[in-house]
Amino acid sequence: MHAMWRGSVSFGLVNIPVRLYKATETGGIHFRQLHRTCRTPISYRKFCPRCQAEVSQDEIVRGFEYAKGEFVVVEDDDLAAFQGRRGETIDLVQFADAGEIDPVMFQGAYYLAPEASGKKAYRLLWQALRASGRVGVARMTLRSAESLVLVRASEADGNVLVVHTLAWPEDVRSTGELPYVREAVEIDANELEVAETLIRQLTKPFVPNEYRDESRARLEAWIAERRGEAGTERPGAPSSGEVVDLMEALKKSLQLAKQAEKPQESKRKKRKTS
């Protein structure tokens, strides 16, 4: 696994040398854009329309457009001056209960691993976070931009510290412009009871490996067939029936959930008797 960042976690007067790794990969099937006529991949040029010339990478600079066609050039050294020491530090500034942070703020996820010299301090921070039930809130510079991050102790796949980048509060959109969500709606008590029963019926421990990207699997199978056949039939899209009666739909859903639970119960009974 390739480390995308190296630095340290600043925890009071303690500095823990660490490396940062991406926790997730970009899944899915990646397509290339082709010229339909000859099926050759399309190439893109970095072209200056004013100079009518292709531009090499060393001729390209960042620019902030403050008015139409007017730019302030921002060099790498300019950005580095604003980052300062934080360019190589995850600076823990406070600790909080995880429930206080709205999940809508969560963005990317990364693993933190210690350097050899920081193993003990890393484990100390992990155990302290786990014992307290709290998470750390920190600032760091990632990809040339200052980021607000959350640091937590994870037991899901080894005892590792996980970093989540957070959206800045001013970047979180208000729900005020969403249609209908703040509108008062009268809920029937019987409908609510059935809905709560359905939730209880479908409640079970979350096991991530039980879920897979079925659309990707179907597309991969279709592509595999297409490689050998010129005119493979496209798979049909799943049908979506229109819900007419809310109570009827809830009752049917509850019935289906109970039917799905029966085979699981019989399997458990067989395991007990064997």
UniProtKB/TrEMBL annotation:
Q: Which CDD domains match?
A: KU_like
| PANTHER family xrefs | NON-HOMOLOGOUS END JOINING PROTEIN KU (PTHR41251)
- What role does it play? With LigD forms a non-homologous end joining (NHEJ) DNA repair enzyme, which repairs dsDNA breaks with reduced fidelity. Binds linear dsDNA with 5'- and 3'- overhangs but not closed circular dsDNA nor ssDNA. Recruits and stimulates the ligase activity of LigD.
Q: Which organism is it from?
A: Alicyclobacillus acidocaldarius (strain Tc-4-1) (Bacillus acidocaldarius)
Question: Assembly state and interactors?
Answer: Homodimer. Interacts with LigD.
Which keywords label this protein? DNA damage, DNA recombination, DNA repair, DNA-binding
Q: Note down the stretches annotated as region Disordered.
A: 255-274
Q: Which Pfam families match?
A: Ku
**Cited SMART domains:** Ku78
Offer one example of a GO biological process linked to this entry.
DNA recombination
Q: Name one GO molecular function term.
A: double-stranded DNA binding
Q: Which residues form the Ku domain?
A: 52-183
Q: Could you say which protein family the record assigns here?
A: Belongs to the prokaryotic Ku family.
Q: Which NCBIfam families is this protein grouped with?
A: Ku_bact (TIGR02772)
Know the name of this protein? Non-homologous end joining protein Ku
Highest rank taxon of the organism: Bacteria
